[in-house]
Amino acid sequence: MIEIRNLSLWYRKDHKVIDDVSARIPKGRAVVICGPSGSGKSSLLRCINGLERFQEGEIIIDGQSLRSRETDIHKVRAKIGMVFQHFELYPHMTVLDNITLAPRKVLNQSEKDAENKAMQLLTRVGIPDKASRYPGELSGGQQQRVAIARSLAMEPKAMLFDEPTSALDPEMIKEVLEVMIDLAKSGMTMVVVTHEMGFAREVADEVAFMDHGRFVERKPAGAFFECTENPRTREFLSRILK
Amino acid sequence: MDLQVIARNLEFMAGGLVVTFEITAVALAGGLLWGILLGLGRLSRIPWIYHPVTVYVHFFRSQPLILVIFWFYFLVPVMIGKPLGAFVSTLIAFVAFEAAYFAEIVRGGVQSVSGGQAAAGYSCGLRYHQVQLYIILPQALRNMLPALTTQAVVIFQDTSLAYVIGLREFLRRVNLVDTREARSIELYLFAGTVYLVLCSLGSAAARRLERRREVGLS
Amino acid sequence: MLHYDFDWSVLWRHPYGKMLLQGVWTTVHLSLLAWAIALPVGVAIALCRIMPCRPARLVGGAYVETLRNIPLLVQLFFWYFAVPSLLPGKTERWLYANVRDLSYVLGVLALGTYTAARVAEAVRSGLLAVPAGQFRAALSTGLSPAGTYRHVILPYALRVVIPLLSTEFLTCFKNSSLAMTIGVMETTGMANYIDSFTFHGLETTTAASLVYLLTSLSVIVLMSRIESKMRIPGMIARER
To answer: Residue C82's closest chain B neighbor by CA?
Structure first.
């Protein structure tokens, strides 16, 4: 479904942000990527949906190479949803408008259809009553759930999560993780950059530790936590798992 | 002090004020629209958009408006083969000139919108013009409102420069009355007062908007 | 398409070439003289506006508000048409008889006082940019108020003010063109004047444009050199 081949990205010649990374993420898999800040995890996500332009390597999504001239990057982005650390809801639009903007303008859905779908999604993430509110009136956890609904409105084939709970107060992390767990269990292909190891343990099929632009260790979830081989991985885990 | 001279000629001079407002309105609207395009161009990563736009903005910002007004008064007729008249060439000059200033205001406004907003829009499959139109510009314009208001006050004052090509806006009319009545002190105090009152209102509005925006941010 | 026959020799032909150069020279010394008035007056006004004395603040504020909300051209006309008649009869007559280039003098005064208001705003921005705590912190280490200004406040404020002042100087340079309306033969006025003889206004205004363009570029280049020498890492947040 998502295939990454020998991906490299750099801003300065002497410092590679992503260094020869390869991975294959089949349909329905949930992959968690963890690692220290600056390790390239967010950049990797941004390369997958074309927000970041990489210098070397290939990314193939559903058979379409991002490098190929025939690929319409906008269509690729419509198929892949992304959820951001700082939610990035549009502050000047209501929750409902936030969710229906892209379906109306990209998928050419009628306003009524888009709104119905949006209400369904809002119910799924647990806040149908907030439809006509503005993002500024919502708590962080509620905003992030709206952001997830906004991505789901485009009926994506895969979802990318860039540290979705890092900017949340502890009491609100749970409500967002519950939505993400529900999503993973329903079979969504997910790539999640996070420090929430509880989430990884519960639904991740595979966990990868990234450091200095490379995958240091990659294992199925159970094995990742029980038998870490690499000392760096162990050191990192010991620091974030109390 | 003969204040009667103002009363006698008020209608004539007030007519000039109407012309002034007309020029201001057109310069504001046209300059802003063209300035938005230029401002976005200044942020473009495409070289054949960025460089010409940058040259345009730097060029017009280096010129005195009087000279630009002369330019368009001479240049446009030469280019289209027939004379254009003071009013129209002034409007073109103002739009072209003020747009360079609006471009920098727009550039600042767009940059003040968090980068993540555009990323969120693109991630849903929206294209560049959709992201700008629905997500970035509405937020940017709200942030720019104080600076735009200040620039509107500047434009209002700049209209007086159309004097040099004989356009019968407010100042020119005051000047004409003066040549007839020779009551310079009263008349120019009057002109100054009118501008002072109107522009102070505009500047005060801009300050209010700036304070409201700061409150909203906190 | 272009129904015009260009004659660029008008730019160097006698007497027009010389007239153009004289115009440029006039622009230069007019701007510099106005700036020489604007800088001290502007700084004084800015200081008035931040002093603890309320009347001083009001006077300073009134000066800035008045001169910034009236177009420069109106102020110029006021100086030229109205001010001489405000003076006592003898002085007025003396002025007209003895001051050779009264338009020039009045132009300098108008431009100088107007630019002073703008300089005042720029300097005030610089002074306000210094974080409030700096003054208290310096005093608490035992520095006198004068020493605080000299060693802490001023170096910080200058780094904000100097770029703003360079912009204001360029504005002053451009605004000198308004003096043509009262008969001063500076660059723009001269370009227009030559056109009235030769009907080659396009060439002369091009030349005038180049003068302003080159001046602007020179000041910008000079300023970026100065700014890079003054720069302190991380001090004033710059865009990446």
So the answer is: B185
Domain C36-184 bears CATH identifier 3.40.50.1820? no
Q: pLDDT-based confidence at C240, cuts 50/70/90? A: very low
Residues 6 or more apart whose CB falls under 8 angstroms from that of A184 comprise A30, A190, A203, A204
Rg, Å, chain B Cα set: 21
Chains in touch with A (≥3 Cβ pairs < 8 A): B
CB-side neighbour CA atoms (13 Å) of A80: 29
Q: What is the ipTM of this complex?
A: 0.87
AA identity, residue C178: L
Do C159 and C110 meet the contact criterion of CB atoms below 8 Å apart?
A: no
DSSP category for residue A61 = E
Residue with tokens 């802003």: B32
How far is the first Cα of chain B from the last one, in angstroms, to the nearest whole number? 52
Domain boundaries, chain C: 36-184
Asked if C63 and C45 count as a contact pair (C-beta separation under 8 A), the reply is yes
C177 and chain B in contact, CB less than 8 A = yes
Of residues A238 and A142, more confidently modeled: A142
Rg from Cα positions in chain C: 22
Please tell me the distance from the alpha carbon of residue A123 to that of residue A130, in angstroms, as a whole number.
10
d(CA A150, CA A122): 9
Going from the C-alpha of C90 to that of each of B54, B130, C83, C96, C213, the distances in angstroms are: 55, 70, 14, 10, 44
Name residues whose C-beta falls within 8 Å of residue C226's C-beta, 6 or more positions apart in sequence. C162
pLDDT value of residue C237: 45
Q: 10 Å Cβ neighbour count for C25?
A: 12
Find how far residue B94's CA is from the centre of its chain.
7
Q: Does B161 touch chain C (CB under 8 A)?
A: yes
Query: What is each CA distance from B156 to B24, B163, C70, C116, in whole angstroms?
Result: 5, 13, 10, 21
Identity of the amino acid at A148:
I
Do chain A and C touch: 3 or more Cβ pairs under 8 angstroms?
A: no
Best residue in B2, B67, B195 for a mutation probing chain C (most C CBs within 10 Å) = B67
**What does the DSSP 8-state code read for residue C235?**
S
Per DSSP, helices labelled H in chain C are 16-50, 54-69, 72-77, 83-86, 89-98, 102-129, 132-140, 145-148, 154-175, 187-198, 201-230
Chains A and B touch (3+ CB pairs under 8 A): yes
Full set of structural domains in chain B with CATH: 4-217 (1.10.3720.10)
3-state secondary structure of C81: helix
Bigger pLDDT: B164 vs B63: B63
Q: What is the pLDDT of residues A72-125, one digit of tens each?
A: 888 888 899 999 999 999 999 999 999 999 999 999 999 999 999 999 999 999
With 80 as the cut, is the pLDDT of residue C98 above it? no
8 A C-beta contact, residue C82 and residue B189: yes
Cis peptide before C15 (omega within 30 of 0): yes
